[in-house]
Amino acid sequence: MKRLMLPMMVGLGLVWGACTQSAQSQLVAGLQGTYDLSRVNDRLFVTSTDRNELRVLELNPDAQLRRFARAPNPLEPLAIPVLPRPQALTHDVRYDENGSEQPGPYVYARSNGSTLISVVSAESLREVVRLDTVALTAALPERSVGPVTAIAARAPAAEGEPSILYFATRETTGARLWRVRLPASPEALEALDGAYDVKGFGPSTAALTASEAVSSLLVLPAGRLAVSTLRGETRNPGRSFWLDPEAGGAEQVLDFAGGQVLKLFTHERVAEAEGRAAVAEGTRVFGLLDPSNCAAAPCASGVLAVESATGVVSNDATGYRMLPLNSGAGLPTGLSLSRDTRLSVQPGESRTTVVPLLGIVPLSTGGILFFDALTLQQLNTGATWASPEQANTVSATLSFVDVVGNATDASADLTFSGTFGTTRDETYVLAYQGVFAGMGVLERDPASATFRVPALLDEERLPAVRPGDRIVLLADAAAQQPCGTDVTVGEIQRDSPAVGSDTLVPTGALPEECAGYPFFQVRAAGTQPLVLGGAGEAFIRRLGTGDLFTRSKSYFFHPPNYSGRAEDTAVSLRVLRNLEDTNRPLARGDRYVVGTRSYFAPYLISVDLSYSDLRRFRLPGPVVQARVGDTDFAYIAYPSANGLLQVTLTSLVAGAANAQGLLPYQ
Description:
39% strand; 3 helices; mainly beta; single chain; 44 strands; 666 residues
């Protein structure tokens, strides 16, 4: 009996183990190096760079069957061996009579520093041929010997026509552009035996130079190819343009406001609808701006669009030139542009669920930004005004906080005004007899009757410290034991700007009981006893009764009533209170706190890293959008996690760390 039981137990164990492994393998493929991805119909190709292969996620409408393609051994995910360390992918694309993007037969992979390009069949999921660009161009008068820096491909326009692969190389003499025609049939491509139709081409008006490297190639409708280049020379950025590799002619410059572009993108046709005209496929070319180089400082970051016909920056829905679309300090790491995509509506929005043309931008800060790529504006999730507030305006909370922390309304003591589109969410503090920045605790020589302080100027370049201000002697560096008698500043000996300090001379002798104190601080007094600081600035200026502080800033988004001004008043504060009124005396340490409210919040999400399955999804890379069944998803490559993240676009909460609707594939 024991002899029978053992084989039965082993057999049952094998069956149980096989079932468990199969279930786990729906999500686990052992990805190593997820640097890029490319979607062809219902298949998502992703690099597994460290394994020198590609993996394929099958986008099945049935979530239980949405998994990595199986190998011949169904317990293992399929691996497609390609060139060493694949880091960038693309696929054939063309635009049909409806302006929709249609893929071709191949997916292409390249690697930084390599002269190889892998051509993979999108149908049979195998590498058909591995092109060596050195050998490919060997018969040409000017052959290529440098690495491939960018690739793009045009799908066959009709049955029997070839796929066209475009690639850029970096030669010792500079950047070069090439095109090669490939049979649309993988079998015919395999049988070609090196007899390729290949040629070099380039811009005719301004040739590529030795200082340029092509960073991106983009297939446009009507046989056009967009090109962007990089330069490492400060204030001499790379350029962008499109040309026709077959027909020739002059190239069309694409001027991204003097910016250098890392990668180019375009869109499908957007149909006419009530209140808007149709936008043809390829009308706009979008670029990810490189903030490290541009024609004039400061260099912008984010996403910018230009009109492909004229090359000028596109106008947004206000009719004025669009602003770069970004959020904070994050650099864009990818872009997806998708038609009629459903995105969850947030409380501050008035739009419908379907966005006619949605832009999705992963950011280096870990966030994911969504914007309206048709109106070329941010999706504002903060536009919520309560009665009696007026729409498309800004406001501020004005509070008086006494020395012990009690807060009351200060709208009778201060006034505020600002502009929707320039006013940001910021906090300003007006401290009565406040300590000047950098002068909270300074060391002194008790044997000296003067006090050396750092030179401090306000925003108008006027000295902060003035005669009549107060010096407070301190017994310790913690400022817990101040002298009970202030010292009044009588004279200020200003050193040269190179020295960076001033010497304060008191009006009289120091208090005898505190003369030996080794530390001191300097506070404002006189007719301007309020020290204004805030928004990352410890000191802005001094204010007194009736004084006005105003600051203009450039628009960070265009509101509905935008009139074309480059900048406008962001904050204006006037002091109404009589600071010298003995019936309402102020105490040292009292302060006014102003919290400005912009009523603007971009549609920005982050990943909730508190969940163990999502902990490594910190740094996103390229993104593609896909409708699987009736659900819209974004698929984002995460090199930090060696995985993909599936994001359900109708389950998102803007301005928050999200976990619901996020599914990792690794």
